[in-house]
Design goal:
Strand order of the largest sheet: 9-14-13-15-16-18-17
Shape: globular
Number of helices: 21
Structural class: alpha/beta
Number of strands: 18
Distance between the termini: 57 Å
Helix content: 25-40%
C-alpha cells in the first residue's frame, strides 16, 4: 500500500466517510486510493468554495468531519472564504491539500506556493506529511484536532508522500477526550449573578442552541427570570416543542435597544455580542457600558454540561421551561404581491417537520425569523462568518448528512452567484433541496450599509457596483443549465403553488422569487 491508501484507511476507521473534492494533478494518487475504497462517498464540487462550504454544512448536521480534497495553494485559496465561515461556526473539517513532491519544490514550478501560510489563518491546525511513513501520524493528528478544537484542520500531502510505499498496519479508531465543562469559577460566578436580583441576559451559542441544552437554559430562565438570547452559530434547533430564544438583532441600533436593560451578561460558548461592523460615532459592543460579562465556557467546552451544572447551583432542575407551541395555522396566507415577508410567511406555514433551513437570505429572510418558534421543529443552518457564497454549498452538505430530511435553502441572489456551480452538484447527487432565490437584482445589504454610513443618494458608480441588472440574472435558466428543475414566481399565488410542489416531491428544485 502507499501513503494515500494509509490516509484513506485512517479516515475511514475514524468514521470520516465523505470526501468533497476538486482534485488536480498532484492528487492523482489520492484519487486512485479513494477509488479503491467504495465505503468513502466522493462528491465533486466544480469550485473549491463549493467543496469547503459543503464540508461545513455536512459537519454541522452530521456532528463529525468530512474530508476535502483541494489542489495545491491556489485550490486552497479558492476555498478559504468558506473555511472562514466554518471557522466561525466552529465546524470540524479535515482538508487534504495536495502539493508538489518534496524534491520538486526547489525548482519553483508554476503551482508552487506557501500552502502552510495560506492555510494557517483559517485553520485551527496545520500539518504536513513530509514522507509516506508520516501519513498515518499526521492524519490522526488532523482528525483529533478537528474534533477536540471544533475547527478546521488542514493537512498538506506532497505527491511523493502519497505515492510512497508503506507497510500495512492494524488501525483502530482514535479515542477523543471528552469535552470539559466550563470552569467551576465561571459557573459559580454565573450562579451568583442569577441569584443577585439583577437583570441577567444569557447569551447562547454553538451547541448550547441544541434542544437538550436549550431546555436547561429554559429552566434557568423560568427559575431566575433571566432573558435568553442567541448569537449567530453554526446550527440552532428551533420550532415547536423547544425553548425559544431571542436572536441578537443584526441592525446595531435595534441590538443596542434590545440589550439596554441587561446588567449582567452570561455568555455561553461565545464572547459578548458585538456589532458586525464599525460605524462613525457608534459603539462596537452592544451591551451597556456598565454591564458585567461572565464567560461560561468556549466553543470546545461541553456547553450542555455547563448549563446542567449551572442549573444545579441555582436549584433550577425542577423548574418548568416555556416550550414553544405549533401555531402555523395562525400565520396568514398572503395573496398580494410577492415580497420578502410574504415569502417568509408561506415557507413558515408549509415547512415540514424536521426540515433543515439553510439560510443565506441576508436582508430578505429577516421576515422568516419571526415565525421560528411557532413552526414545525427544524434546524437552522446560517451563514456564520459573513463571507457570502455559502448558502448553496451548505445545502449540499446538509442534504448529504441527512438524506431523509427536507432541506430548504433561503438564498439571496447576489451571494448565490458566488458558488452557483453548487447547483450542478445538487443535481448530480440528486439531493432533496428546495432552493428559494430572493431575486431583488441587487446587493440589498450593501445598499443598507451605504445608508448606515450616511449615504442616501446613490450615483451612477455606486449603482453600478450595487445593482445586479443590465442584464438581469435568469435563475431558472441558470438552474436548468446545471440540471436543476426550476420555476419563476412573481405573485404570492405562483410562489405558493411552486413551493407546494417542491415540498411534495424529492430531488432538487429552485424557485426564482421575483421581489
Amino acid at each position: 500500500m502507499n501513503g494515500a491508501d494509509m490516509l484513506c484507511d485512517v479516515l475511514l476507521v475514524n468514521g470520516v466517510d465523505v470526501c468533497f473534492a476538486n482534485p488536480g494533478t498532484s492528487e492523482m494518487h489520492f484519487v486512485a486510493a479513494l477509488d479503491r475504497k467504495p465505503q468513502m462517498r466522493c462528491v465533486l464540487g466544480l469550485f473549491e468554495g463549493v467543496v469547503t462550504g459543503a464540508a461545513d454544512g455536512y459537519a454541522r448536521m452530521a456532528d463529525k468531519p468530512a474530508v476535502t480534497l483541494l489542489h495545491t495553494g491556489p485550490g486552497l485559496a479558492n476555498g478559504l472564504a468558506n473555511m472562514h465561515n466554518a471557522r466561525r461556526a466552529h465546524t470540524p473539517m479535515i482538508n487534504v491539500v495536495g502539493d508538489h513532491a518534496t524534491y520538486h519544490l526547489q525548482y519553483d514550478a508554476p503551482l508552487t506556493s506557501d500552502i502552510d501560510g495560506l492555510a494557517r489563518p483559517m485553520s485551527a491546525w496545520v500539518g504536513r506529511a513530509t514522507a509516506a511513513e508520516r501519513v498515518r501520524g499526521v492524519t490522526e493528528e488532523a482528525y483529533l484536532a478537528s474534533i477536540a478544537r471544533r475547527g478546521v484542520a488542514t493537512m498538506i500531502l506532497p505527491a511523493d508522500a502519497a505515492w510512497g510505499e508503506v507497510e500495512p498496519e492494524e488501525l483502530n479508531a482514535l479515542t477523543v477526550p471528552d469535552a470539559p465543562a466550563a470552569s467551576a469559577e465561571s459557573i459559580m460566578a454565573a450562579a451568583a449573578a442569577l441569584s443577585s436580583g439583577k437583570k441577567v441576559g444569557i447569551f447562547l451559542s454553538g451547541t448550547a442552541l441544541r434542544a437538550d441544552a436549550l431546555e436547561l437554559a429554559g429552566k434557568l430562565a423560568a427559575k431566575t427570570g433571566a432573558v435568553l438570547f442567541s448569537q449567530t452559530s453554526g446550527r440552532s434547533e428551533r420550532g415547536a416543542g423547544r425553548v425559544a430564544v431571542r436572536p441578537v438583532p443584526y441592525v446595531l441600533e435595534m441590538a443596542v435597544a434590545a440589550l439596554a436593560d441587561i446588567q449582567v451578561a452570561i455568555c455561553v460558548g461565545k464572547g459578548e455580542p458585538v456589532a458586525f461592523f464599525a460605524y462613525p460615532g457608534k459603539p462596537s459592543t452592544l451591551l451597556p457600558k456598565d454591564c458585567a460579562v461572565i464567560q461560561l465556557g468556549d466553543s470546545a467546552s461541553n456547553l450542555r454540561l455547563s448549563l446542567e451544572q449551572l442549573c444545579s447551583e441555582v436549584g433550577a432542575h425542577t423548574a418548568k421551561p416555556v416550550l414553544a407551541s405549533l401555531k402555523t395555522h395562525e400565520i396568514g396566507e398572503p395573496t398580494d404581491a410577492l415580497h420578502p415577508d410574504s415569502i417568509g410567511q408561506m415557507v413558515a406555514r408549509r415547512l415540514p417537520e424536521n426540515a433543515i433551513i439553510c439560510d443565506e437570505s441576508i436582508t430578505s429572510g429577516r421576515g422568516f425569523a419571526q415565525f421560528a418558534s411557532v413552526m414545525q421543529p427544524h434546524d437552522h443552518v446560517p451563514l456564520t462568518g459573513g463571507a457570502i457564497g455559502e448558502g448553496i454549498p451548505l445545502s449540499i452538505g446538509a442534504a448529504i448528512a441527512c438524506p431523509d430530511r427536507k432541506v430548504v435553502l433561503l438564498q439571496a441572489d447576489g451571494s448565490g452567484m458566488y458558488t452557483v456551480q453548487g447547483l450542478w452538484t445538487q443535481a448530480r447527487e440528486n439531493l432533496d433541496v428546495v432552493t428559494i432565490v430572493f431575486a431583488n437584482s441587487s446587493y440589498a445589504i450593501l445598499q443598507g450599509e451605504m445608508r448606515n454610513v450616511g449615504v442616501n443618494q446613490f450615483g451612477r458608480n455606486a449603482r453600478a457596483m450595487l445593482d445586479l441588472d443590465r442584464p438581469n440574472l435568469s435563475w431558472c435558466e441558470i438552474a436548468r443549465g446545471m440540471g436543476v428543475e426550476a420555476g419563476r414566481a412573481t405573485t404570492a399565488q405562483e410562489f405558493a403553488r411552486l413551493l407546494d410542489s417542491a415540498l411534495a416531491n424529492k430531488g432538487p428544485f429552485l424557485i426564482e422569487a421575483v421581489i
